[in-house]
Structure formats: C-alpha cells, structure tokens
Amino acid sequence: MVDDGAVLLVEAAQRGDVLAMNDLLDLLAPYVGRICGPIALDSGQDATQEALVAVFRALRTLREPGALYGWVRAIAVREAVRIARRESRSAPAELADLPAPGDPQLATDIEDVLARLSPEHRAVLVLRDVEGMDERSAAALLDLPAGTVKSRLHRARDSFRKAWKS
Known about the structure:
Helices cover 69% and strands 0% of the residues. The protein is mostly helical. The chain folds into two domains: 1-90, Orthogonal Bundle (Rna Polymerase Sigma Factor, Chain: A); 91-166, Arc Repressor Mutant, subunit A, CATH 1.10.10. The radius of gyration is 17 Å and the shape is elongated.
C-alpha cells in the first residue's frame, strides 16, 4: 500500500506538476533500481532509466494511485528483462563450469550466479525472493501460468544451490 503522501505526489504529477514529478522520481528511483539491478545485471542502470522513462510516460494512465508500487514493479521487471535480452544474456552459461569456492581467478558471488541465469529466471527470483510476491502474483505480473513461474523458480534456486556448492 502506498502512503497518502505518495498518492498526493502521483495525483499532482498526473496533473503536470513538475515539482511533484521530481519528488516522485526521487521516491521511485531507488525502488526501481533494486528491481532492475539483479535482473539486468551490468545493464541495471540502463534498465532503471528505461523503466523510469516508461513510468513517467504512462503515469497519466495509472487509474489507482494507491497501486503505484505494483504498477511500477511490473514496468521495471518488463524493462529489465527487455534490456537483459537486448544485451544477449538470455542464454545462460553452463553452471557446471563455475569455479570452486575460493578459486583465486573468480570468486562466486550473487552477481556471478545471477549472470548465469536467463533474465526470465532472474525476474522470478527477484519477484519471489526480493519483492516477496507469491507465485500467483508473480505469474500475473509476468503474464505466465503459475506452473511456469513455479518451475522457473525451482530451476533458478537449484542453480544457485549448485553454484554455491561447486
């Protein structure tokens, strides 16, 4: 749920109030960055920027200002996946090729593991494990069947476990 101050900002921004738009940008930028970064990886800043541009272009279409964060989340995930695909990250690397923990050439960390997942798998992980959404809500946001979200989540989490154990 969005607080009353954010609702007032959205309503003012929808009327064209430039100061409200600036304040809304300051409010939303960190949130969008936390969503886009783990999905788009090295292109996270580009995805964040693209998502914020899309949000402000479509702001007048937001009918329920109280639904701001859910609406922004959907746009951010869509843009992050699109940017990640554009950057040719949609084909995951082979996780079996990960170096063992402690390997001096490449430390296995979260970003390393995320880079080996497809944008679609990263999106499901972010929605479930960062945003705390249930599978049905994530499926609706991604416009996928719940079973697809469940299987992607299982594969993504399994990939994490394998990466940390290797």
